[in-house]
Design brief:
The complex is a heterodimer of chains A (191) and B (280).
Chain A (H helix, E strand, L loop, with lengths): L1 H12 L10 H6 L4 H30 L8 H23 L1 H7 L10 H12 L4 H29 L11 H15 L8
Chain B lengths: L1 H24 L6 H9 L13 H9 L13 H11 L9 E5 L20 H6 L16 H5 L5 E3 L5 E3 L9 H5 L5 E5 L4 E3 L7 H7 L9 H5 L6 E4 L2 E4 L19 E3 L20
Antiparallel strand pairs in B: 1-4, 2-3, 5-8, 6-7
Helix pairs in contact in B: 2-3, 2-4
The chains are: A mainly alpha (191), B alpha+beta (280).
Chain lengths: 191, 280
């Protein structure tokens, strides 16, 4: 039950992008096409889950026993960077078109505050390993939900009659705000 | 001091070794010639070859799916270089340039209404074919100029598009951008052209524009035993593969739709450097 609440909280109530405002960079940058957005979601989900788990393991079995808790930030970033490099290598081999369409946003997952935020939140909230894994997956799903919804809206918005001053990024930001307001409807669902 | 450094160094080492192993496992084989070809290409990324940019074209050349001659921007020296990298012979292709087949500017073409909409030919074309009486003519709202990555199209003072042949590379983007499809690719050395695409009956065409082709067939009849210009649907067509050679055919045209224009006689600013040969 606890795990289910954790999942609902991570995906809807405290959505990483729309409630916590983490990971806005790929949210705005990779949401022009639905196909690219799906690819980005997959990459971020993979990195988030794996990075959360590995970070938790390193924190609890290396940093804490050796009283090196102050190395938390830099070691987490090291882990995330390695994960992202792995994803880059894999994508370049397995799907060159996706690799090219993600472009600069793939290595930018390294500095994505959503990924680091997820890893740090697991430590702050004292999650167990299972809870960490579930939270990592759910946070990735939440990020994906927000990104895919936004990409879908933006694709249709591209064809609509937008006032000239709003075209492009401006109307995208306004839409992101409206989407965030919509997700506020979930507030209070989980304490 | 030693312990945190060692821990961090240890983590870095593990990550480094892991990534090295992954790099080997996920290694992508690229032909080294691909980079050489890419470096040799002009790098305009215009898409005229039909591929997504120069890097993609280089990949296609190395894979045998394209030839050096497919790049319209390359000059002969570049083509030779690419062919040399691939160990191939260069196939000779004639350079082609774009030509706007309309002379109906504001001085000769009558307007039908005043267009006040978005400054785009595609938009104007949606409004009943545009604001000129001739529904086939150039609208002059620069859709072609906008897509040209070489700055080879100018809009004249009288409001129609004109290609600057010296800057044109024949990539073909303007052909797709024109909603009236009145831009064509013609061989660079062609001198006789019909600058009209109006297929309306002679009377209608003449009323709409003073320099339109009325399909009178005088050009076709001038050298009746070897007509190099065929008229169909009230419009004269020049077959550029079998082009007319005698410049006097131009004098037969009563409206001035058939003209003599040496596309190589223009400089990079679009000014004529010498009078066309055979001018009456």
């Amino acid at each position: 039950m606890e795990l289910l609440l954790l999942v609902i909280s991570a995906i809807f109530v405290n959505n990483f992008v729309l409630s916590r405002f983490l990971g806005i960079c790929p949210f705005l940058g990779v949401s022009k096409k639905l196909g690219t957005a799906m690819g980005m979601t997959g990459a971020v989900m993979f990195v988030m889950t794996l990075a959360s788990v590995v970070s938790w393991l390193v924190y609890n079995y290396v940093l804490e026993p050796l009283d090196l808790v102050f190395l938390q930030t830099i070691s987490f970033i090291l882990i995330i960077a390695a994960m992202v490099q792995l994803v880059e290598l894999a994508l370049q081999k397995l799907s060159p078109p996706l690799y090219r369409s993600l472009g600069i946003f793939l290595p930018l997952i390294t500095t994505n505050c959503a990924v680091l935020g997820c890893a740090v939140m697991n430590i702050q909230n004292d999650h167990s390993l299972i809870e960490t894994t579930v939270f990592g997956i759910a946070a990735g799903v939440g990020f994906g939900v927000a990104l895919l919804l936004f990409a879908g809206i933006r694709e249709v918005l591209d064809l609509a009659e937008t006032p000239k001053v709003f075209k492009g990024t401006a109307i995208a930001l306004v839409t992101a705000g409206v989407l965030s307001m919509a997700f506020m409807g979930f507030a209070g669902l989980v304490k | 001091m030693l312990v945190p450094t060692a821990v961090l160094a240890g983590m870095g080492l593990v990550a480094g070794l892991g990534l090295a192993a992954a790099a080997k496992a996920f290694a992508v084989e690229t032909d080294p010639r691909q980079d050489e070809v890419n470096d040799a290409l002009p790098g305009a990324n215009c898409g005229g070859c039909g591929f997504a940019g120069c890097a993609d074209f280089a990949a296609a050349v190395v894979a045998g799916k394209a030839e050096a001659a497919d790049c319209p921007v390359c000059d002969d020296a570049t083509r030779q270089a690419v062919a040399a990298i691939m160990g191939q012979e260069v196939t000779e292709t004639k350079r082609r340039v774009a030509l706007v087949m309309c002379q109906g500017d504001q001085s000769v073409a009558k307007p039908s209404f005043r267009y006040n909409g978005q400054a785009s030919c595609a938009s104007a074309d949606l409004l009943g074919g545009g604001s000129k009486l001739c529904l086939h003519g150039c609208l002059g709202l620069a859709d072609c100029q906008a897509v040209c990555s070489f700055g080879a199209i100018e809009i004249t003072e009288q409001g129609i598009a004109k290609v600057i042949p010296a800057r044109c590379t024949g990539c073909g983007k303007c052909l797709a951008a024109c909603p009236k499809h009145l831009i064509g690719l013609v061989p660079e050395d062609a001198t006789i052209h019909v600058l009209c695409v109006n297929t309306d009956k002679g009377g209608t065409a003449r009323k709409a524009c003073g320099v339109s082709c009325i399909g009178c067939k005088k050009c076709e009849k001038t050298f009746a035993d070897d007509p190099r210009i065929k008229v169909s649907n009230f419009l004269a067509h020049v077959d550029y593969d079998h082009a007319p050679t005698d410049a006097s055919i131009v004098e037969a045209c009563p409206t001035g739709a058939l003209i003599l224009r040496d596309l190589r006689a223009f400089d990079v600013d679009g000014h004529e450097t010498q009078a066309p040969k055979g001018q009456a």
